[in-house]
Amino acid sequence: MSGAGTFPVELKGLSTRFGNTWVHRHIDLAVPAGEVVALVGGSGSGKTTLLRQMVGLLQPAEGEVRLFGEPLSAGSRDAQLARRRRFGMLFQQGALFSALNVFANVAFPLREAGIDDEELVNHLVLLKLAMVELGPEVALRMPAELSGGMVKRVALARALALEPELLLLDEPTAGLDPDRSAGFVRLIRALHRALGLTVVLVTHDLDTLAALATRVAVLSEGRILANGPLDEIMTVQDPFIERFFHSERSQAALARGRAEA
Ligand SMILES: Nc1ncnc2c1ncn2[C@@H]1O[C@H](COP(=O)(O)OP(=O)(O)OP(=O)(O)O)[C@@H](O)[C@H]1O
């Protein structure tokens, strides 16, 4: 478990380029252990791409990603695999394997990690499903038979399968109605507290942000425009921050989210 004062994720001078387009320019960002950091920014500002960089799904054009204090590519293959097991990711739309049932989806990372004792796999899958408030009767369903909220919960169970210290969430409440969204936020908050997780999330949803985030990092024009507690971010003079946080609708959403927190 990463202790207080450490940074499970550090980006140092990170730049991302697709063809001739630079999406990120020299980004420095450290995510402190135990915090819930929300990445916000306009559409296409590079939030999802930054999450993908954090877990090595993309290579930076410049700079470095450090996970748990070490460069992503450091160490032997075994060391890299061991690092891989310390984080879980919830992709947009859940990204469940459509040909596998719920049980096999949640079991997937366990089997990949070499856990082949069937009794243990069974126990762990049902435990993870219970953690996301799903009963064993869901285990044999196929992803196409689940509601949007259930897909997110199963995807979260899969992300938590190997008991990660770090959880990355891409738009966790997108596509959920307000009640399901509030329920999912409560679940993530409870898990964050119970498991001592560090969380990085991308969200457009201010209710979700206000209810969950302990810090906010604002991406704009390829850079981190501001990074700190929400109250501090809201004092920054910038057109995006003005539009995103200070409209009447935003204020109402923030008030609702804070009431949930
Ligand atoms: N694999 C790729 N190849 C080429 N361009 C890409 C690729 N992935 C992302 N991009 C581009 O990088 C930019 C940032 O995309 P990204 O999905 O990270 O933005 P975002 O901030 O998450 O957007 P949104 O809020 O709309 O989901 C966009 O212009 C996108 O088209």
From TrEMBL:
Name the record gives this protein: ABC transporter ATP-binding protein
SMART domains for this protein: AAA
Every ABC transporter domain range: 9-246
Species: Zoogloea oryzae
PANTHER family associated with the record: PROTEIN TRIGALACTOSYLDIACYLGLYCEROL 3, CHLOROPLASTIC (PTHR43023:SF3)
Presence of keyword Lipoprotein: no
Superkingdom, taxonomy of origin: Bacteria
Classification of source organism: Bacteria, Pseudomonadati, Pseudomonadota, Betaproteobacteria, Rhodocyclales
Keyword annotations from UniProtKB, A to Z: ATP-binding, Cell membrane, Membrane, Nucleotide-binding, Transport
A GO molecular-function descriptor: ATP binding
Listed Pfam families: ABC_tran (PF00005)
